[in-house]
Design brief:
It is built from one helix and 24 strands. By secondary structure, the protein is mainly β.
């Protein structure tokens, strides 16, 4: 702030104090280019080039600080009596200031002064405002009464810490986002409700009724998680049972709302096979119809020539057959090999049945007898000799 000092005699100062009608002299109007006590007891008028050169509540007119539109406790003053309760008159600025002491407010240089005079102190930047310092016993007191001191900066568009900047500790107007997933929306940073921090003014989309979809790597239900509920995606799975069992992995279904197995069950066999410990017809059971029979007793032949064995699977596994122990197999040899209870010999072999061999005049009749290897029977007849003259005509 720039000041122009005008020094007047003590008599002029006394006359100014007692003046009841100062006429049109702008240097004598309270709060308008006020003549006030200077550091050496003379008078000073606040000179200005722009409004910012003047105390709060004054504007710059014709190079001098003059009052703006009057407001309570912001009017010009000559003495404390011109101010309301709790306010004092700062002679150096000609305005009313709070009377409360502000010992840590900024003070002008110390020095000698005229006892009883005052000067303004503190600063007028942002929300800060001037106070008044008294001259006591010819020296400035060092205490700034009234005024408004800096406070912590708030996010309110005002210069609370009186450094010439507003909201400088808050990064306002920066891009930001609110919401999660597909509900996330952009905005800008603004002051929070408590004015101590910033908030994002973006309004996220409503998450009500939204459901998560499978495998699209998007947070569809706006809960901060992607594909939640589908954590088993790509896990191993299978379809079908028994011989129809096929392996696959879990994949998303067509509408992405659930998981399904990629495997397709195989085609079941038309019948269950015997003794392979496989569920061939894919009904969840193994060897059904066989496993409760295989190994149980069975009989070959009719009484009294009956031999006891056990059921086994046939060679093609489609049926059962009765298996006799090797030591109990009857042979065609005229002996009771299997030792059945009836004492039967060669049972199962058609020994003694009629048979023929040969053709034409060589044909001979006989009965079946045991073969040399005792495993079957052969016809016991011997065929005749052919005509030595060959085939005869017409016979």
């Amino acid at each position: 702030m720039r000041y122009r000092y005008f020094f007047m005699g003590a008599a002029i100062a006394a006359l100014a104090t007692a003046c009841d009608d100062c006429g049109g002299d702008p240097t004598r109007q309270p709060g308008a280019g006020l003549p006030v006590s200077g550091p050496d007891g003379g008078s000073q008028v606040i000179s200005c080039g722009v409004d910012d050169d003047c105390p709060f509540g004054q504007v710059c007119r014709a190079g001098l600080c003059q009052p703006s539109d009057p407001s309570l406790h912001d009017e010009g003053c000559w003495t404390d009596a011109d101010c309301g309760a709790g306010y004092r008159c700062a002679a150096s600025s000609g305005r009313c200031v709070l009377a409360a002491a502000s010992p840590d407010a900024a003070l002008p240089p110390a020095g000698e002064c005229v006892t009883g005079t005052t000067r303004h102190c503190g600063t007028k930047v942002g929300l800060c405002d001037y106070g008044v310092e008294d001259c006591v016993a010819g020296h400035w007191s060092g205490t700034c009464n009234g005024g408004v001191r800096p406070t912590d900066e708030l996010c309110d568009g005002l210069d609370n810490d009186c450094d010439g900047d507003s909201d400088e500790t808050f990064e306002l107007g920066r891009p930001c986002f609110n919401g999660l997933g597909v509900c996330r929306r952009p905005g800008l940073t603004v002051c929070s409700g408590d004015q101590r921090s910033i908030a994002c003014n973006a309004v996220p989309l409503d998450a009500t009724g939204r459901i998560e979809l499978c495998g699209n790597a998007v947070d569809d239900d706006c809960d901060g998680e992607v594909d939640d509920g589908f954590e088993q995606l790509d896990a191993a799975c299978s379809a079908g049972v028994g011989a129809c069992l096929r392996a696959g992995t879990l994949i998303c279904n067509d509408d992405l709302t659930a998981l399904r197995c990629s495997a397709v069950a195989g085609t079941p066999a038309p019948v269950e096979l015997c003794g392979n410990d496989v569920d061939d017809n894919c009904d969840g059971q193994t060897d059904e119809g066989f496993d409760d029979v295989v190994g149980t007793a069975c009989a070959v032949g009719a009484p009294p020539c009956q031999t006891i064995g056990q059921w086994i699977c046939s060679s093609d596994r489609t049926a059962l057959e009765c298996e006799l122990p090797l030591t109990l197999v009857e042979r065609c040899n005229g002996i009771d090999d299997n030792g059945d209870s009836g004492g039967c010999i060669d049972e199962g072999f058609p020994v003694g049945e009629s048979c023929t061999v040969g053709q034409g005049i060589c044909r001979a009749s006989g009965v079946r007898v045991c073969s040399a290897d005792e495993l079957t029977t052969i016809c016991g007849a011997t065929p005749g000799a052919p005509d030595p003259y060959g085939e005869l005509c017409g016979n």
